[in-house]
């Protein structure tokens, strides 16, 4: 019975010309991790990668310290999980990771696509891997169709959407995290781990040190709510005393405009915009932000945009769902009080 | 008895470096781009200027030389672009670059990062550059790829999204902006460094320097003279306007804001 049923569903497939349906077209996904946790953007990239053929091979790399990230990765909807154990992969260095990804892609003919999240790590590593594979990169995609042949991506700071078609035999794709839902990471069937040999190459620019901004708030890139402050806050003290209580009352991450970052009111890791983070939360509150094109590119896909600005002509009001013209130094504390 | 250059080099064990600064002519960042009704591209008849990240790269190259005159031997700007991209090269020369290379392509041809990277590699092999300083991304294509691809093709170090750069003893030390903070990497030259916004504040070219720049050499190369083609690998099927938001609603009071948030189930 079972065999018959399978044969029946297969029948129409054989009618298609063979040349247009390669035997397999699976995706390799680079799994980004930090402090033993998988990056949220990677889960979105997995959803995008599944749209190629359904089957996604994950690859994770690093020293022994990645064991808890591997445990999380085994609960993802992956067909296989490749693990490259080596200290040379700690901190995601492009000099050593790109050759590993190239080797894995070339070793397995079924792998036609290489995916990663369009994060600082993905942006750093993926184009280098693409160059080694002599293929173009399709960066920061918003959607994909036709089994990963056709892609859409924003150009000119998101002011135009370009649809591109790739005829390359291998496609290298980075994924905008906010354009895809995160894949389910709670499967009870654990993916079998396959160890792969590290590719021994020189790290041309090794990691020396890092300085992370510590915060107890949700991560800006994946938060459901974001409260952002702009130049109108006038000082770092005001930024702290006005924006932080509002963010805390909503359980929101804090963001900032480039003007606020450049004036030293907020750390540059909080910058929302074309040159900073791209966010698409349920709620985005823009406080004292005029709404320059570059800022809008980073937040205009948010579900509900609330803007507070004293200039009724500020461009932010053209896209805000709820706009309040007023002095933020009066309005925001009042709002915070009513929300707590 | 003046010391010869060779003696100086031996005495200080310092390596003079030649800096290559790839730049791109883009639609000016302040222009609101319009999609053409034919769905094939955007209106290109608007103001163009140097990609802002590339201005930062030019500025950094000049500052490197200003900080230490013996360190930087030459600064060469290079672009792959239409005839008008020469204006952008002149801007780089007016800021302080010494010479320029123009790889000329058709007006409508926006060359993809991989082919630009191959072109840069070609000139690096020809002229020997020890440091490439370039923008992290161009604000038209937004790919953020050319520098990384070039480093891969050359098999040399890359330090992307730089917010600080130091060069000493043939090594580059770069602080990079990463998600959630900063990372410092260090490696031997040659190195490809891509600039982030906070690396520096680019200068304006003064009028005398703009005049001087007119006399600086620009080498012009046709794309057909390259030993490979610059054909795009990706086909642009269409270019469309993004979905428009139906925003624009203003409310009168904080209570109205709270009410709206309640309606959306946010509180």
From TrEMBL, chain A:
Keywords: Electron transport, FAD, Flavoprotein, Mitochondrion, Transit peptide, Transport
Subunit structure and binding partners: Heterodimer of an alpha and a beta subunit.
Protein name listed in UniProt: Probable electron transfer flavoprotein subunit alpha
GO molecular function, one term: flavin adenine dinucleotide binding
InterPro entries for this protein: DHS-like_NAD/FAD-binding_dom, ETF_a/b_N, ETF_a/FixB, ETF_alpha_N, ETF_asu_C, ETF_asu_C_CS, Rossmann-like_a/b/a_fold
CDD domains membership: ETF_alpha
Pfam families: ETF (PF01012), ETF_alpha (PF00766)
From TrEMBL, chain B:
Gene Ontology MF term list: electron transfer activity
Pfam families per the UniProt record, alphabetical: ETF
Electron transfer flavoprotein alpha/beta-subunit N-terminal domain location: 38-230
Keyword flag Glycoprotein: no
A GO BP annotation: amino acid catabolic process
Cofactor(s) for this UniProt protein: FAD; AMP
Co-factor note (free text): Binds 1 FAD per dimer. Binds 1 AMP per subunit.
One Gene Ontology CC term in the entry: mitochondrial matrix
Compartments in which it is found: Mitochondrion matrix
Residue ranges the record marks as coiled coil: none
Predominant location category: mitochondrion
Recorded superkingdom: Eukaryota
Function text: The electron transfer flavoprotein serves as a specific electron acceptor for several dehydrogenases, including five acyl-CoA dehydrogenases, glutaryl-CoA and sarcosine dehydrogenase. It transfers the electrons to the main mitochondrial respiratory chain via ETF-ubiquinone oxidoreductase (ETF dehydrogenase).
Family, as annotated: Belongs to the ETF beta-subunit/FixA family.
PANTHER family noted in UniProt: ELECTRON TRANSFER FLAVOPROTEIN BETA-SUBUNIT, ELECTRON TRANSFER FLAVOPROTEIN SUBUNIT BETA
Subunit structure: Heterodimer of an alpha and a beta subunit.
Name under which the protein is recorded: Probable electron transfer flavoprotein subunit beta
Species this protein is from: Wallemia ichthyophaga
């Amino acid at each position: 019975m079972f065999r018959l049923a399978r044969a029946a569903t297969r029948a129409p497939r054989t009618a298609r010309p063979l040349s247009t349906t390669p035997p397999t077209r699976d995706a390799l996904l680079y799994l980004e991790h930090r402090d033993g946790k998988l990056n949220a953007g990677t889960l979105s990239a997995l959803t995008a990668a599944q749209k190629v053929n359904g089957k996604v091979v994950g690859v994770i790399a690093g020293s022994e310290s990645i064991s808890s990230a591997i445990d999380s990765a085994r609960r993802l909807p992956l067909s296989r999980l490749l693990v490259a154990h080596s200290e040379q992969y700690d901190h995601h260095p492009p000099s050593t990771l790109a050759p590993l990804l190239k080797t894995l892609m070339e070793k397995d003919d079924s792998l036609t696509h290489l995916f990663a999240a369009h994060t600082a790590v993905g942006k750093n590593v993926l184009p280098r891997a693409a160059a080694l594979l002599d293929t173009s990169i399709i960066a920061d995609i918003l959607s994909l169709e036709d089994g990963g042949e056709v892609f859409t991506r924003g150009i000119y700071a998101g002011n135009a959407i370009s649809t591109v078609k790739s005829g390359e035999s291998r496609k290298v794709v980075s994924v905008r995290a906010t354009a895809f839902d995160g894949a389910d990471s709670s499967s009870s069937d654990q993916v079998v781990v396959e160890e792969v040999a590290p590719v021994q190459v020189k790290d041309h620019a090794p990691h020396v040190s890092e300085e992370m901004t510590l915060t107890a708030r949700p991560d800006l890139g994946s938060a459901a709510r974001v409260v952002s402050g702009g130049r109108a806050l006038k000082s770092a003290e005001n930024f702290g005393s006005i924006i932080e209580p509002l963010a805390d009352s909503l359980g929101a991450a804090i963001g900032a405009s480039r003007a606020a970052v450049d004036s030293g009111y907020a750390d540059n890791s909080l910058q929302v915009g074309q040159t900073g983070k791209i966010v698409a939360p349920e709620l985005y509150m823009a406080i004292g932000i005029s709404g320059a094109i570059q800022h809008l590119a980073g937040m205009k896909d948010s579900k509900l945009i609330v803007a507070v600005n004293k200039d009724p002509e500020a461009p932010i009001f053209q896209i805000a769902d709820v706009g309040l013209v007023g002095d933020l130094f009066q309005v925001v504390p009042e709002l915070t009080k009513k929300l707590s | 008895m003046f010391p010869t250059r060779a003696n100086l080099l031996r005495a200080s064990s310092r390596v003079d470096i030649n800096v290559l600064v790839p730049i791109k002519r883009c639609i000016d960042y302040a222009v609101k781009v319009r999609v053409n009704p034919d769905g094939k591209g955007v209106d290109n008849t608007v103001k163009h200027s140097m990609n802002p990240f590339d201005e930062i790269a030019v500025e950094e190259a000049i500052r490197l030389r200003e900080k230490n005159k013996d360190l930087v031997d030459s600064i060469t700007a290079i672009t792959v672009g239409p005839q008008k991209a020469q204006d952008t090269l002149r801007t780089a020369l007016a800021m302080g670059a010494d010479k320029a290379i123009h790889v000329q392509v058709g007006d409508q041809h926006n060359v993809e990062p991989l082919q630009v990277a191959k072109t840069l590699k070609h000139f690096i092999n020809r002229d020997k550059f020890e440091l490439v300083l370039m923008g992290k991304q161009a604000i038209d294509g937004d790919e953020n790829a050319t520098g990384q691809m070039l480093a891969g093709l050359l098999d040399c170090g890359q330090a992307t999204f730089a917010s600080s750069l130091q060069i000493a003893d043939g090594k580059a030390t770069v602080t990079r902006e990463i998600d959630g903070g900063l990372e410092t990497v260090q490696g031997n030259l040659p190195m490809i460094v891509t600039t982030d916004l906070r690396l520096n504040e680019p200068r304006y070219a003064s009028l005398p320097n703009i005049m001087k720049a007119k006399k600086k050499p620009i080498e012009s190369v046709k794309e057909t003279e390259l030993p490979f083609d610059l054909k795009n690998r990706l086909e642009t099927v269409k270019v469309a306007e993004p979905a428009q938001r139906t925003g624009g609603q203003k409310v009168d009071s904080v209570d109205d804001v709270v009410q709206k948030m309640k309606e959306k189930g946010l509180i």
